[in-house]
Amino acid sequence: MTQATQPVPWEFFDGPQGMRVASDGTLRLCVLEPEGKLFRRRAIVGVPMRCMGDALLPKLNEFAGDILKQPDMPATEAVARLLALAGSIPTAEPTRRECVVAELHGVRVYIEGRDVVVTTRDLQLAGGG
Q1: Are 19 and 35 in contact (CB under 8 A)?
Q2: Is the whole-model pTM more than 0.85?
């Protein structure tokens, strides 16, 4: 994964009079009330749950068995099945995501990139943008 695909990490520090601050170098989020919380949420999206061998070998074995049953399989069908096998394996690099969260009196403010969400829900980072 290249450095360009990494999110800019949020840095946390204490400001004057007990204020807590998070900054990614572009944006700054401040919590003024002492009962407020400020934290980050991170995720890695797109990590395969199974290793490629576990996912691919049963399908390759099935394909090999079909070739043994039908040795005169047309080349176009064989190529189409091989391409389908190749397309079933994810090749994209996992994506790292990070957001900062401020919470006060049950209301949360989530900031990721240029997106700001205000909600009372506990949101989790997932795939997508």
Answers
A1: no
A2: no
- The answer to whether the CB of 29 falls within 8 A of the CB of 109 is yes
Q: What angle do CA 104, 23, 14 make, to 5 degrees?
A: 65
As a whole number, mean pLDDT of residues 16-23 equals 92
- Determine the angle formed by the axes of helices 75-87 and 52-69, rounding to 10 degrees: 170
Buried b (16+ CB within 10 A) or exposed e, 6-38: ebeebeeeeeeeeebebebeeeebebeeeebeb
Q: Are the C-beta atoms of 24 and 98 separated by less than 8 Å? A: no
CA–CA gap between residue 33 and residue 15 (Å, rounded): 12
Tokens of 62: 């099935």
β-strand partners of 102: 38, 109
